[in-house]
Amino acid sequence: PGQIIAVANQKGGVGKTTTAINLGTALAAMQLRVLLVDMDPQGNASTGLGIKGRDRKVNTYDLLLGDAPLETVCTGTRVPGLDICPANGDLSSADVALLDDPHRLRRLRRALREADDRTPRGGYDYVIIDCPPSLNVLTLNALVAAHAVLVPLQCEFFAMEGLTQIMDSIRKVQRGQNPELRVLGIVLTMFDRRNNLSADVAAEVREIYSDLVYETVIPRNVRLSEAPSHEKPALIYDPYCPGSHAYVALAGELRARRRIA
Amino acid sequence: PGQIIAVANQKGGVGKTTTAINLGTALAAMQLRVLLVDMDPQGNASTGLGIKGRDRKVNTYDLLLGDAPLETVCTGTRVPGLDICPANGDLSSADVALLDDPHRLRRLRRALREADDRTPRGGYDYVIIDCPPSLNVLTLNALVAAHAVLVPLQCEFFAMEGLTQIMDSIRKVQRGQNPELRVLGIVLTMFDRRNNLSADVAAEVREIYSDLVYETVIPRNVRLSEAPSHEKPALIYDPYCPGSHAYVALAGELRARRRIA
Ligand SMILES: Nc1ncnc2c1ncn2[C@@H]1O[C@H](COP(=O)(O)OP(=O)(O)OP(=O)(O)O)[C@@H](O)[C@H]1O
Ligand SMILES: Nc1ncnc2c1ncn2[C@@H]1O[C@H](COP(=O)(O)OP(=O)(O)OP(=O)(O)O)[C@@H](O)[C@H]1O
Ligand SMILES: [Mg+2]
Ligand SMILES: [Mg+2]
Question: Quick one: pLDDT at residue B258?
Fold first, then answer.
């Protein structure tokens, strides 16, 4: 396939889903073909793109269990060029269902690679995987399947503290099941100009992780949190808001960094 | 023991840890003896109360595995009357370690009840359990151990969508391993007067869940998110800020509701 990017951070509420939806939309707006894989039993990425409950009967859980191929599971969205593998609560049974499979962490990798074998060049330019807030079998499947991982980091103290845990998990996967996995970068989210905390966190993270931290910073912007209730990405709900601009810039920076890497 | 309250919601970043720390502190300030059990491998409640990594060698993981009794695991904090069972990354191995135990969901319940048998009246008035952002073995242990569950709800669209999932899980536990479990209430958090989204979400939740929703609303207040970097609850870091006032009011409402219940 094209580049498979996992959007992961075990800290909750840092902007994983908001980043997956809006980065995906911004890339699709550049005439790229994008697939969003919703790996969270909360199904927020699916909800944010307007996928109704009745249209998730076949979903990422079936993909992981090998009960349905990618072509059957994925469906179009109201964003041209952006497809999605939707998710619902079924996914929370994946832990138990895959227990006895020694290769349980490679299920998603296999499903994506097999789909690519069937349609090598007709596939997607980018596959973006939205992960749940934990380091469980779902997030590990995403890290094993991915070429690279993007870590959204809320500009808050607890989120900064949690950075070492996700970086440790990535290193473990690199040493084990996916040596080619690389860290695409850290994206600062919900940056609030009005308080010092955001600036302090941003400065500290840039000092420790330097070039890994993207130049593009996603500001705290209420339009980003209003958009899901309208079942649209912010880029469609309010294309001129600061949040949308930031995600378009993020897509640009991601593409530019790819050329350099 | 006294009343055991689980603070739970699988949606990430809704204010579970902030509520556990500051509600615990507000109850301790009323001369009540409070124990905070950190059930999250992120260990944010432990960090927010200044427990260093070297002081978490014995932690909630040992309590769950039965390797150490409550008296050995719990330790004092800088808040008079507030003890904590600290947590660290060890806890993320609990899933696998408890796999073969048919009673794996009752481990915390057993540890707390056994401690109470040893010191019936000398124990705690309140035990508050901070849960991770998932419905896994850790959160289920908390729901099986608890008398009641408090659900923090961020005033955002995705968080509101997720309310049915936590309510479903609570019902399953009530029908199964813990029939006495009751829903203490829903606490609206990060309410932002500046935008309509908070007001819309609050109105919708009050309409659906009516009396279950606490009168006390926790405002978005940067002092709440600054406090953990000083290793203090907001009630000590800045006792007069809107966030601290709200948590003191929450403790008052919780006590009053208990008399009525
Ligand atoms: N830059 C932003 N400005 C304002 N609100 C935001 C921003 N990014 C995300 N939000 C809102 O903050 C909340 C948390 O974001 P989101 O759900 O994307 O995080 P997450 O990491 O996917 O959460 P989870 O850990 O539960 O999966 C959501 O209600 C979202 O709408
Ligand atoms: N009322 C508030 N006003 C402003 N910031 C807040 C408020 N409540 C919590 N925060 C901040 O928002 C972030 C998320 O809160 P917190 O970590 O308590 O949520 P959580 O539900 O415990 O997250 P997780 O799902 O990762 O366990 C933290 O950085 C915290 O400091
Ligand atoms: Mg999410
Ligand atoms: Mg927490």
Answer: 85
